[in-house]
UniProtKB/TrEMBL annotation:
Keywords: ATP-binding, Cell membrane, Membrane, Nucleotide-binding, Transport. This is Branched-chain amino acid transport system ATP-binding protein. PROSITE patterns: ABC_TRANSPORTER_2. One of its GO terms (molecular function) is ATP binding. The keyword Cell membrane applies. SUPFAM superfamilies: P-loop containing nucleoside triphosphate hydrolases.
Length: 254
């Protein structure tokens, strides 16, 4: 892990988003250190999703700036932000059920290589992409299912596949929106391991409600409440912070 205190891949300053006079996010300062796993947590309605949408520029801020790898992105369009290496993982609906697991990864790789024209014109390109797709499936233990329709995968494996299609884009910073949502108990550990594996050499910012997962995975935690930063620190620090405990207990969300 890079221990350089000043090496922040992402820095948001004074980030705010107003919806018809109501601030969903207000004056948020967020700094994400390179090569760490950083969690964004908070009770329901705290502004986590809005923050994610601002950081990926799907929403434009009412106020504030976002610097990714030294470059202002708050006015950029989401596609160019993704191209520059800040990628949000898509939800399971992004997995094409009728296509095989391998084909799903290949399509993601093709999106990255932008060989669109050649892709459709020249079947050989598929084999070049196949090698890389198989490598990625191997990395996450999905090789056995390479030729199975993605729709046949268990929910947990679909989540892993969805992460692989994100990794295929070779992001420097990956935003994961509740990666454990809807997973059965038995799927949590494999998906956690997968996140740890893909985080190597990258940076991960995740919204997650499962505190055990956060405790185990995350180097740094930012707690939001009512659109503002309530606390920041390691899991050990924020989980014992009386203001954080109050925010969760107050919202009946222990
Ligand atoms: N497009 C919108 N228009 C109006 N209000 C919105 C909009 N999007 C979000 N909000 C409001 O902003 C606040 C923050 O919502 P947001 O979805 O960002 O919170 P969250 O922390 O992700 O919540 P949850 O954990 O429930 O997903 C909520 O009060 C929500 O109702």
């Amino acid at each position: 892990m890079n221990k350089n205190e000043d090496d922040y891949i992402l820095q948001a300053k004074g980030l705010s988003k107003q919806f018809r006079g109501f601030y969903a996010v207000k004056g948020v300062d967020l700094r994400v250190r390179r090569h760490t796993i950083h969690a964004l947590i908070g009770p329901n309605g705290a502004g986590k999703t809005t923050c994610f949408n601002l950081l990926t520029t799907f929403l434009k801020p009412t106020e504030g700036t976002i610097v990714f790898n030294g470059r202002h992105i708050e006015k950029s369009d989401p596609a160019s932000v993704a191209d520059s290496g800040l990628v949000r993982s898509f939800q399971i609906s992004a997995v094409f059920s009728q296509m095989t697991v391998l084909e799903n990864v290949r399509v993601a790789l093709q999106r990255k290589t932008r060989w669109n024209y050649a892709f459709w014109r020249n079947q050989n390109v598929l084999h070049v992409l196949d090698d890389r797709a198989r490598e990625l499936l191997d990395m996450v233990g999905l090789t056995r299912w390479a030729d199975a329709p993605a729709g046949d995968l268990s929910y947990g494996r679909k989540r892993v596949l969805e992460l692989v299609t994100t990794i295929a884009l070779e992001p420097e910073l990956i935003l994961l929106d509740e990666p454990m949502a809807g997973l059965g108990h038995e799927d949590i550990e494999p998906v956690m391991q997968m996140i740890q594996r893909v985080a190597k050499g990258r940076t991960v910012l995740m919204v997650e409600h499962n505190m055990k997962v956060i405790a185990e995975l995350c180097d740094q935690v930012t707690v939001l409440q009512s659109g503002q930063v309530l606390a920041e620190g390691t899991y050990a620090q924020v989980s014992t912070d009386p203001r954080v405990i109050e925010a969760y207990v107050g919202g009946a969300h222990v």
